[in-house]
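## Example record

The block below lists the input lines for one assembly entry, exactly as stored, with component labels intact.
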Amino acid sequence: MLNSFIPVLAFLFQEVENDRFAQMKHAATHPDLSKFLVIGALLFIIGVAGVLTRRNIIVIFMSIELILNAANLNFVAFSRYLQETGNVNALAGQIFTVFVIVVAAAEAAIGLGIVIALYRNKETIWVDEIDLLKW
Amino acid sequence: MILSGYEALFFWIFALAAIFAALLTVMARNAVHSALFLISSLVSVAALFVLAGAEFIAGVQILVYVGGVMVLFLFVIMLVNVGAEERGREEIFNNRRQVTASLIFCFLLVAGVLYAVNEGYRGLQKSRPMPEASIGLDSRASGPAGATGTSAITKDTERVGSSLYRYASLPFEIASVLLLVAIIGSVMLARTLKQEASADDVDPEVLREEIARDPELANFEPQSD
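Predicted structure tokens for the full assembly:
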């Protein structure tokens, strides 16, 4: 039983010796590009989980908005990073974000129009009950 | 890009708020609650945009998403409101097997993406090392330095606007056409049968069947002149 703790303790001592915890603290108090990317990735995954698991078609649309927003966060973070490296075309990320927002607005308008038409014809918003193309 | 001091504090506050609100968006039973949590997630992400130096995008995010798209969502939720969901009678998730499979898929995706971000960022730092202190502020600010070392006045909006017209004027016009198509398309999709009949936009045979079911529709039949 005690033997199994020895590698763990050895690992912790090694980490302390390498000043790994100070590095982690520094990384937490000084967020950089990778932290923005991690937040974007988590938002993206939450959106994907919403699309895959929910039954309400409107909530699925909201999850798609979350996914697009996560992509926007990545674009903006990379744009800031490139501005600091002095890249000439560093604002391309922000411009792309504007277009993503435009396309998201158009998608929401069309999608919700389809939802209303569907509700009028099928009287349901549960995606598993809308199976006209299934046989 | 390295934030420090209060910027770091606010980064973590808004990042956690965005992620929690996103989780609650996906898990809330009532669709209206989902929409409100999504609004708070979008506002938090707008704050992260400000921290990344993109004030214009943050403003567009608030105006377009929170002011426009979410209001649209709320209207549609109220049009197709399903009471059974709120009263807890309907299952809001897919069946258990599908949920399990998609959660496993999402965990794999999380692991893969986080691994890729860490490895890729380490490689990026190795290939072009960045100085410890936040540099490049001269390029994005010209006013007096604020409390956090960055400028109180940035020229972000002006620069985004000028490069939007300089490098992306054709996509900009295409986007306006796209929005026009979206407006017309959603109006066409959301019309009722009465509106379609009065615009003489229904197949005559379908219209005759529908009139047999609902005689009131005959009033909306266009008079041939």
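The first helix of chain A runs from residue 5 to 17. The mean pLDDT of chain A is 87.
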